[in-house]
Amino acid sequence: MKVNFTNGKLVVRFTLNFILHQILLFLAVSLPAVFYIAVLKQPDQLYVVNLTTGMIIAVYFLYCLFYGYYVARPMADILVQIRKLSSGEYLAPVRKKPSFSSRLYREVYANLDALSSVLRENERRRQKFEQERQDWAAGVAHDLKTPLSYISGYADMLLSEEHVWSAEERKEFLQLIREKSAHMEELIHDLGIAFRMDQPMGPKLALRRIELTELIRRTVAGIVNLPLDGTAHFEIQGGETPLYVMGDAGLLHRAFSNLLVNAVFHNPPGTAITVHIRRSSMAEVQITDNGSGMEEEQVNHLFDRYYRGTSTDAPTGGTGLGMAIVKQIIAAHQGTVAAASRIGHGTTVTVCIPFDREPDI
Question: Using CB atoms within 10 A of its CB, is residue 145 exposed (0-12), middle (13-18) or buried (19+)?
Answer without folding.
Answer: exposed
